[in-house]
Design a protein that fits this description.
The chain has 160 residues and is mostly helical. The protein is 68% helix and 8% strand. The protein starts with a strand and ends with a helix.
Length: 160
């Protein structure tokens, strides 16, 4: 873990999987996949379960309504939430923070405080990227592919 500041706030940054609680790591991976795929898997799973229940009872319009609600959630309500920021909130600890607390409201409130203190997108991206790169066995070839894409993108941007 590494100590650092965002504005006036003191934090500890988890640098690899050796620093993170296993429960919290599961949520980190979920949000990381959501940031890559643009799919909120728990919301999708819940929607499918509700829709199938309606289908099983021949309530087709209600089943369709579940999918409409899901579409609305991913296009509007969830649009302002950023999964990569949530990954950062999971690896950036406040003083005496319980790593078992992965509650979505808690993470949102924590991010709101950090944004007010001056959290930058660059710090979010760099910290999450470094965490992934320092944990290659946990992320398989994802970290290697990320490095390759980043290097190619830097080459393209520098040549233009």
């Amino acid at each position: 873990m590494r100590a650092f500041k965002i504005g006036d706030g003191d934090y500890q940054l988890l640098e690899s999987v050796t620093d993170i609680n296993d429960k919290r790591f599961t949520y980190f991976k979920m949000y990381l996949l959501q940031s890559l795929e643009g799919i909120d898997r728990p919301l999708f799973k819940s929607t499918m379960e509700k829709a199938m229940e309606h289908f099983n009872h021949h309530r087709y319009i209600q089943a369709w309504g579940e999918f409409e609600n899901y579409n609305h959630a991913i296009e509007h309500e969830k649009y302002n939430e950023d999964a990569l920021s949530k990954c950062f909130a999971l690896i950036c600890l406040e003083k005496n923070e319980n790593q078992l607390n992965t509650d979505d409201n808690f993470l949102n409130e924590k991010l709101e405080k950090m944004w007010v203190d001056g959290l930058t997108r660059g710090l979010v991206e760099e910290s999450v990227r470094n965490f992934i790169m320092m944990s290659p066995l946990s992320f398989g070839s994802y970290s290697q592919r990320l490095e390759e894409v980043t290097l190619k993108l830097e080459e393209i941007l520098s040549s233009e």
